[in-house]
Amino acid sequence: METKTVVTALAALAQDSRLAIFRALVQVGPAGLAAGRISELTGIAPSSLSFHLKELSHADMVSSQQSGRFVIYTANFSTMNALLGFLTENCCGGNPCSPVCTPACATSKEST
Amino acid sequence: METKTVVTALAALAQDSRLAIFRALVQVGPAGLAAGRISELTGIAPSSLSFHLKELSHADMVSSQQSGRFVIYTANFSTMNALLGFLTENCCGGNPCSPVCTPACATSKEST
DNA sequence: TCAACGTTTCAAATATCATTGAAATATGGA
DNA sequence: TCCATATTTCAATGATATTTGAAACGTTGA
Questions:
Q1: Which Pfam families match (chains A, B) (predicted)?
Q2: What is the DSSP letter of B74?
Q3: Whole-structure pTM value
Q4: Does the structure show a pLDDT above 50 at A7?
Q5: What's the mean pLDDT in A72-101?
Q6: Given a cut of 90, is residue A98 above it in pLDDT?
Q7: Selection from A107, A16, A55 nearest residue B8 by Cα
Q8: I need a surface site. Which of A8, A10, B46, B92 has the fewest CB within 10 A?
């Protein structure tokens, strides 16, 4: 995972509305949520929500798929895990300061 | 860990200079680095560095201690771990989507 | 085709952040 | 005490982010 990518991912999460959105999606799991439902749950106005979803999408923290007239958003667990892995990488010069493991969730994949 | 705290921590890391600073501190471990040394390693100008260190410090991502005329900065591993734990919390509604463990490093403590 | 619904785009206003250089502060040694 | 070193503060500038409402877009069902 590149530093630039990590900064983008962190920036995507470093905002009240987006963190709320992302957590809602993480907690609902792979089924995801329609944009309108996210708006209801979080109280974020549709246009503002769309802006933040695009931001999260651009950071690859969420994915979307059209379903009828709904757009379903889901958390990108693989990116989340890559992000978490990056932050603990090379901790203490690579010495085993303590057992480090990569947090994982369903649908996780490889990361660099 | 409160949402507000998490946003602050994420925002602290979501910036090129600060991520570089933090990673340098993570990799050097508990021994830490003097401000001037961080400036050398990262190429960040002293005044800018000081700004970012204050930001990281305010987010409780780093700690500092005076040592002679040097100020030694160290990564706050406990906060980092709390942060990582928060992001994986309640994943998929609390269902065991896969083994989730809290990444850890030396000197880690409790978190909420 | 038409109207309703769900979502996104756009432009403008406001707020916040990052960088710079100069000056200030504090520590240690001659 | 005086000077050099290490770090921080300050003010100003430029750049980015966030929110809002109105309008546009695409999908569905009548």
A1: HTH_20
A2: E
A3: 0.87
A4: yes
A5: 80
A6: no
A7: A16
A8: B46
Q: Is the shortest CB-to-strand distance from A68 to strand D under 7 Å?
A: yes
- B16 CB and strand D closer than 7 A: no
C-alpha to C-alpha distances, B98 to A34, A53, A56, A81, B54, nearest whole angstrom:
25, 26, 24, 12, 38
Give residue B13's identity as a one-letter amino acid code. L
- CATH: 1.10.150.910, 1.10.10.10, 3.40.50.150, 1.20.1530.20. Which one for B3-94? 1.10.10.10
Which chain B residues contact residue A104 at CB under 8 A?
Answer: 98-100
Q: In what side-by-side order are the strands of the sheet with A33-34?
A: A33-34, A70-75, A62-67
CA separation for the pair B25, B32 (Å, rounded): 6
Is residue B29 within 8 Å of B18, Cβ to Cβ? Answer: no
Contact flag A14-B16 (C-beta cutoff 8 Å): no
| pLDDT tens string A33-79 | 999 999 999 999 999 999 999 999 999 999 999 999 999 999 999 99
Strands A70-75 and A33-34 turn out to be: antiparallel
